[in-house]
Amino acid sequence: MRTAGVIMVLLGGSCAGVFDPILFQSKTERRNMDCLRLSQEEGAERYPGQIPPKGGRALAGFQPDVMACSTRYLQPADRNARDEAILSTLSLQVTELVESAGALAPRSARWHVDAFYPSLAVAQKIAVTARTTLAERGFSVSDRVPTLAAGDVAVLASLPPSEAYRTACARSFETKVLGPDELFLGLMIVDARETRLHAGLCEGGVWRWLP
Amino acid sequence: MVGSALEVFGRVEALDPAMRRLRRGGIGLALVALSGCVTFYQPQLALQRPVAVDPQQPTNFTATRVLVRCHPAEGVEADVLCRNVRSSLSKQGAKVTTEIVRPNARAPESKEATEAPQYVIDITSKLLDHSENFLLNVLFAVSFTLVPSWEEWTFSQDVRVRDATGFVLAQQSFQERFVETVGLGIWGINAIVDLLIRPKDEQVTGDGAKAEFTRDLHAHLAQLLHNARVRARVMNSFEPEPSAEAAKGTAP
User: Fold this and answer.
1) Does residue B252 fall inside a structural domain?
2) B110 vs chain A: nearest CA distance in angstroms?
3) Candidates B41, B49, B175, partner chain A, best to mutate (most A CBs within 10 A)
4) Pick from B133, B212, B230: which is nearest to A16 by CB?
5) Based on the domain organization, do B30 and B138 belong to the same domain?
6) How close A169 comes to chain B (CA, Å)?
7) Residue of chain B minimizing CA distance to A194
């Protein structure tokens, strides 16, 4: 009996390993999670009530860490691979580009934003995210998308990206689609297999790519 | 690294009294059990995202000169990583040289390429966490491996792609976790499930975890390098990529 008791205690103590959730998940389930390893202190701040604050062990010098995982809403195959790669990092990418653009432009300018992406639905998401991010940073953002005349658009569509954006910017300024105190921020991909957005800024008829 | 039977054997060898019992019980049984490890791989950060570049395409990086620099760290075999990345990128058409970056000295591994690289990929791998359950290891030994041992590793890779002048074109951090259980019981159950139920790409008793991680990492490295190339073109106003002569002397 005593031996059985000892074994039960040992088994109980080792349950943490045996019942690791990963052992019972399918490959798809394991791949459909985004996880982040945090210190216990940071975890308690982010997930109060779910992760206890620093305990006696931590105060004694033992630094436990926690892993915060969230299951994604969409299954990996639900969206096109490039769309999924861009949308899953959209906020991060757009924030970087918007901050870079914001640093180059005068504070008083009025911003127009548009995105150029093969899928219209994804393009709209990119544009809305950029507008929201600009507005959150206190910039004046317009809902209007500057539109060139049909003849200009037809010509621009035939140009490679290296020329198209530059020409469209100059033309917008010449035809007063964009005023002197207005800026146009364009977000786009220029290669069918890339998963990183680029951005360019049109100011006073001059187009420049953002670093 | 993970799944190495030698490593597993070494770990059990440390449990001397238990090992003696195991030996008495039969070396054969122990060997069967020790070879019976089940490894689970869980991509945690970025590695599970899909990529738009097909890393099987032999023309992805035709004639692109790449220097892969691997930074060694505890628990990571930088030379193996560099060699594998080199092989993967070479199959996609790139001319790859590798370098293991040591704290005080640089030891180029390959002297094949004489031209300066157009892109430099820095890979810094780290073992973030390693834990095992002592109680389970004891039970593993006294139960003749019917109770499995359990061990986990979490690794990270920080990857930066720069151009020849040192400008960072793309960067990404990856993180993954491996859980390894060893034991006749758990291996037996999983072997039966693998045989009867699990589809081939879901099986856990072979080398699948390692292969899946390698596939993920190489696909993402290809995607990063592709993104970096496109970004370099955009930054250079879509000018053609610099020639070898222009790149010489500007490499870091």
Assistant:
1) no
2) 30
3) B49
4) B133
5) no
6) 15
7) B227
Contacts of A65 in chain B (CB under 8 A): 129
Cβ of A85 and B152 within 8 Å?
A: no
Written in H, E and C, the secondary structure of B84-150 is: HHHHHHHHCCCEEEEEEECCCCEEECCCCCCCCCCEEEEEEEEEEEEEECHHHHHHHHHCCCCCCEE
Q: Tell me the HSE value of B188 on the side-chain side, using a 13 A CA sphere.
A: 10
ipTM (interface pTM): 0.83
Q: Which domain holds residue B86?
A: 35-247
Question: Could you read off the pLDDT tens digit of each residue along chain B, which spans 252 residues?
Answer: 444 433 333 343 344 555 555 455 555 555 555 557 888 999 988 999 999 999 999 999 998 999 999 998 887 889 999 999 999 999 999 999 999 988 766 555 555 546 799 999 999 999 988 888 888 888 888 888 888 888 889 999 999 999 999 999 999 999 999 998 888 888 888 888 888 888 877 788 888 888 999 999 999 999 999 999 999 999 988 877 655 444 444 433
What is the number of domains present in chain B? 2
